[in-house]
Amino acid sequence: MCFFSSRFIFPVFLPLLNSVVHGDVRLPGIFGDHMVLQQEATLPVWGWANPQEKVIVTFRNERADTTAGSDGKWRIELPALPAGTPAGTLTVAATNTITLSDVLVGEVWLCSGQSNMELPLTKTNNAAAVAAQANDHQLRLCMVPWNLALAPRDDISPPTRAADIWEVCTPETVGKFSAVGYYFGKNLRAVLKRPVGLIEAAWGGTAAQVWTDPATLQSDPDFHHYVEEQQKVAAKYPGGDTDFAAQVAAQSKPGEKPGGSLLRRGFGPTIPSSLFNAMINPIIPVAIKGVIWYQGEDNAAPASALEYARLFPAMITGWRTRWKEGDFPFLYVQLANLAQRYKDNWPLVREAQLRTLSLSKTGMAVTLDIGTPYYIHPPDKADVGLRLSLLARHIAYGENVVCSGPLYDSMKVEGASIRIRFRPDTIGDGLVIGSSPWKDPKAKITPSTTKLQGFLIAGEDRKWVDALAVIDGNTVVVSSKQVPNPTAVRYAWAQSPLANLYNKNGLPASPFRTDDWNPKSSIDPAK
What we know:
- By secondary structure, this protein is an alpha/beta fold.
- The chain contains twelve helices and 23 strands.
- The chain has helices at residues 115-118, 127-132, 179-192, 214-219, 224-234, 240-250, 261-264, 274-280, 308-323, 346-355, 382-395, 424-427; strands at 36-38, 43-48, 54-59, 62-67, 73-78, 88-93, 97-113, 136-143, 166-169, 196-202, 290-294, 330-333, 362-365, 408-414, 417-422, 431-433, 455-458, 465-466, 468-472, 475-479, 488-491, 501-503, 512-513.
């Protein structure tokens, strides 16, 4: 069994994670046999040793050395390795020697977020058949152990190295891994023809603020309520994060998320920055190509839905700042349809996700058509992974491929109708009435295949009515006899709408609105 295969927590050692441990040279837990190093990027290798001890790192023909500081910490940067570099052995030598075998050079992606990213392959469509064929020794899987912390930690593991935190993708190992991550990596492997390493760091039922670094929350007055929330929890632990770690460890069981009664008291993965501190900071600055992200459900509550438009891009910027790799690609999934829970706010989160595309090198996979109104975890993760891989192929690898469905660009009132234009780079081969690649077996009503649905129109009275929408070239003309003088249009502006605008490349349009009325709620009281 893999040492970390069940995300085992080591209670005895947790309080030591941020302390200086003298003795044998060691690496952080993200390093291990079978790992993948990011090609064509400077490769940080770091760890701990005796103060002033010389440390030598070698990989194939590359060699570098340094001297550990007075605190025992050391860091070396190997030069970028070209595409096609064969597998090799990574060696770290000081008083003792660490040898990591079967290390590949390829593409490394971090897969993070909440339960829809965490959802394992075993709980999705055709899991058994898919797993049986998931035998790819060039695809590597790494699962960051579940943990939470009050302050940024240096490591995800105890001082002794776990040599097999990385696993080769086989039918026996893939089942517990993120389904979205697996399908994303599988699609990249098929196109790029090079090794791919996937690092899963996800926790179900978590909000963006728990994944946001402390400095980002502290730097913006609008986020200070999260800082105060964290400080209230910290006040309960006089010994700081060491005390907190001991309390969490004492209530943790192997193979389960940590906390026990601690979580029930509300001090679990709801603490701002706690998952960044324990699951993201410890793997920085490992070289990555980019991030795929699936989260937002837990920010759809009334108090946070509007805030998400600022919090989510702030979180992304914070990660990029901490990593110091520049604006690496950050690709994310827009919320799917769901007929329950915070129905007045779900569209606002989708809108926040749409607006986050203003950040450079971001991409959004629309999944409005492949969710299910009855279950927050849609079982079709194959299409989610496919759509994320299309974004990666274009944004990260520069391939000329259509990677997005139609995204709203502008509107123009033309008498009794409004013409909607879409971003030219999202139209693809043209607009079309489309349908989902996955059929929900429980769905009682499905979108029309002959007429556009999902469009609303309103005049100055702000009363929304169902609209007639017609594709006209690369635009959509929207009208209603009930609204002779229209001023605004909304599309798919509901928690689980019937909507069917696609491009001919099979990608659905994102929900949007042309108005900014009543920003405190997605549902206007005048309707």
